[in-house]
Structures are given as structure tokens and as C-alpha cells.
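=== RUN LOG ===
request id: a7f3
mode: sequence -> structure
chains: 1
length: 331
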Amino acid sequence: MKQIYLLLVLMTFASAHVFSQKMDVTGTVLSSDDNSPLPSATIYEKGTANTTITDVNGAYNISVENAQAVLVFSFVGYLEQEFTVGEKNAINVSLNPNVRDLDQAIVMGYGNQKRSKISGSVSTLDSKEITSIPILRTEQALQGRSAGVQVTQTSGQPGSAQSIRIRGTGSINNSEPLFVVDGIPSFGIDYLNPADIESMTILKDAASAAIYGARGGNGVVLVTTKKGAVNQPAQITYDTYYGMQEPWKKVALLNAEQYAIIMNESRASAGLNPDPALSNPSALGEGTDWQDAIFQRAPMISHSFSFSRGIDCGFNKVSSELLSPRWYSRW
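=== RESULT ===
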């Protein structure tokens, strides 16, 4: 009995020694951008289920097994950091934002994929490509620039709207894609000045446009406009071009004499007498070529002037201003 009693006493002292090794660690978790607290940041002891989160002030308190414990700090959109506790009872952490290089990865609605894997379903045009040729409407910037995207003019009226089809007709009623300008859905982009566009991204397949639901069934065109940059000098941009416009092809028509001959032959085939006004075709001559009279070669001039700057308004937000009047002169 004495041996059993002695063994129980030794076990009690051993367990008390083990529990005496636990350590309480406190501190705060901040953002490295503006030193603002990160509420609900996760702190856990590596290799265990021991986890806690920060409060609204970014403060935390966690008990670890011993000085060799490793604490992992994480927050959505920030890079993880690990610290060995050692003899420290207070560990303050500043997390860095997880900024991805968009040239190598494309951030999507429910994750991200490498550009090489989805190059056929997503295509991007930058401002240099958009303004490389003179265009009168913003939709013309997509014409012939992306596989599977068709831009056609449904009317011959000058300045008329153009039809955009991404991988064919996907709906019986309206097959136009969804336009999203700076994150805001829009009914079109004809009101935008092409010189004010930073980039245009076309989401073609269902996977890339899934976040937009049924509205993105015909494809999605994401438009990002130019904005001012904080801590940078104001930018003044002037864009102009001069060109000549004329029809590249005319319809082949009959002259007055040829038209009179055809009409007389038609009436004779129908058993009718020739039209008195067309009885002498040779006297009508060439007549007037109305295509030459209407479609004349004309100059075209465009001037675009913009001023942009960025202002730091605090709270890690940037206010941008863009002034971009545009003048057209055509005659």
C-alpha cells in the first residue's frame, strides 16, 4: 500500500509540473498598410487544435503548451506568419496583404487559375490596343481583337449601335453580353470615351462568367476606366487623330440608258407596250450617279483631353477624379 501511495504522489507532482509549463500569450494583430486592427484574425498553435481569434481591436489571448510552441497568424487577403513563442509573453504581429501578380494569375469569383489554363475563355485588351486605331464607338475596340467575339453593325445609319455576340447566339430574345463598368452592371458601353478605358476583359465561357449568374449567360465584358493614382502627380492626357473617310465599296448599278433598256424588255416580256418616258433609251445618256453625289471623301478629326489625379481620403480609400471632354469635328 505504501508503494501505491508513493506512486500516486509522484504522478500528481509530474502532472502538476506538466501543467506548470503552459504559457499565456497575448498581443495584437494589425495590417501593415495603415496599422489598423484586424478583427476576427485567426491564431492557432501549429500541430494542434488550439485556436483563437482577435477581437474588434485586434487583440488576442491564447494558452500554449510550452516555449517551443509555434503560433500561426492568418487573415483573409493577408499572408500567413509564424512565430515561435520562446520566452515571450506578448507577440504583436503586422500582416502583409497578399497581392497577386495579375500578369500570371487571374482572380475569379470563386478562386483563381493560371492564365495559361484559361487563355481561351478570357481575353484582355489594354488601353494601347483600344486606342491603337481611330474608332467612333467603344464597341469597335472589340472588333477582330478576340477569338469568338463578333462585332457587327446592324444598321447603315452613321453612329448606329453595334451588335456584340460572344461565341454565337445564346438566347432567343436578347443575346447581348453583360457589361460591367468598374464593378457596376451597365446596359452598354457606347457612352464611354475609348481614351478613358484602362482595360477591357471578355469572359467567354460559363465557368469564368458563373459569378454573374443568368445575366452572364451571353458572356461578360468587364471594363475598367482610368483612375488617378495617390501620391502621384496629376496626369494630363491629350489624344487626337486626323483621317479621311470614304466608302470602300459601292454597289454596281445601271446607268439611265441601261435601265431604260431593261425596263422596256421587261414590259415586252409581260405583253405590255414600252413606257413612253423610256421609249428612246439613248437619249437618256448616263444620268446621275447618286452614289458619287452622296458618298464623297471627307476629313475626320478627333480631340480628346483628360485630367486625372488621386486623393488619399483616409481609411485606406482613394478618391479619383477624371475630367475628359471630347470634341469631334467632321465635315
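=== NOTES ===
Residues 2-19 form the longest helix (18 residues).
The first strand starts at residue 23 and ends at 31.
=== END ===
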